[in-house]
Structure prediction request, 335 residues.
Amino acid sequence: MARGKIGGVKKSAILLMALGPVLSAKILRHFNEADIEKISLEIANTTKVEVEAVEDVLEEFLLLNQAQRYLLDGGFEYAKTLLEQTLGAQKANEIIKKLKEASQIRPFTFVRKADPKQFINLIAQEHPQTIALILAYLDPEQASKVLSGLPDEQQADIARRIALMDRTSPEVLKLVESVLKEKLSTVVQQDFAAAGGIQALVDILNNADRATEKLILEELEKDDPKLADEIRKRMFIFEDINSLDNSSIQRIIREVDTKDLALALKGSSEEVRERIFRNVSKRAAEMLRDDLEVMGPVRLREVEEAQQRIVAVIRRLDESGEIILARGGDDAIVV
Prediction:
């Protein structure tokens, strides 16, 4: 069976079946619900796959992965040159075409090798919307360093523009890239891709130092309280409790309502439950377990609301300095 005759959903299903359940489960988390449903249905309806089809899909996956690494190192032309040396011109062109069509490579990949301080100086005088566009396409860690290095009066405005960004036309992307290309003496070509949105900003802020996060959220609170609240909700979720140290967890438990804690644990992972149980007295742990057993079915909305109330307590304790939520950059924790 030739690769060209296999559709995208079926290819994904074959790949996941070949990789096995553990890896497949991790990969599926990165798909949207609609794609997960299609792929799962395809897997469920597939009883047998020819060895040739599996080999074709795995070969294509490995080639695309190799091509993507080449591309990140030096752009499309560099990737094409290396692929031509090993696969020939025709095969190399096919792979590069697929990468472009799938929009697997984000714009501004050439910036990843730029020195953060030099890059800040390079874009500092650009329009805030242009800066926001560039940051939205960078890796969150790199974007947070650049955002933190910009003047204080610019940071909140740029952050807000990132959060409210939807889609950008290929023409605008090419124009901005061409300017940076000239300044950095780098050649990059890129097709259309989507970036920005609240989650893009959340990812950046999660990698930023505490001072930058606080400054941006406070400024956003003045101009757009609903947006600031939505960002806060996404920055620390209930399951992240597992990343906190024991003393912080104990402090949080003392502050939250017992009923809220039981309700929140109803929808949590077993790992989080055990972490909570280990940080309360034996009697309190037994009472919590009893509450969970007799609680019975509850609405998901009620569980999420209880978890959100606890997250609000956690953020308040963090802001007052009573506990510490780990941050990136200069706000790393030393123990």
Observations:
- The radius of gyration is 24 Å.
- Residues 51-87 form the longest helix (37 residues).
- DSSP finds 18 helices and no strands in the chain.
